[in-house]
Amino acid sequence: MATTEKTARKPNAAFMKPLTPSATLAAVVGAEPLPRTEVTKKLWDYIKKNDLQDPKNRRNINADDKLRPIFGKDQVSMFEMTKLVSAHLK
Hints:
Layout: H1 13-16, H2 23-29, H3 36-49, E1 60-62, H4 68-71, E2 75-77, H5 78-86
Antiparallel strand pairs: 1-2
């Protein structure tokens, strides 16, 4: 018989492991080690606070002077952003 009991999802330990941001990324999210989830959250806070989402296509982020060295270009998609930020985490 199948049970209807749900098991709680365990967070992935590797996903929650604090990582140290590079100097360029630290200018945006801070220098202390953070899990990837927190880095992404802080990046989105920064993007929204500085109104960096493209007004025509909200999935794109327009880089300012702090984000340009991280992204390597003037505009990235939100999906591309997480990949580019990973290179700045150790």
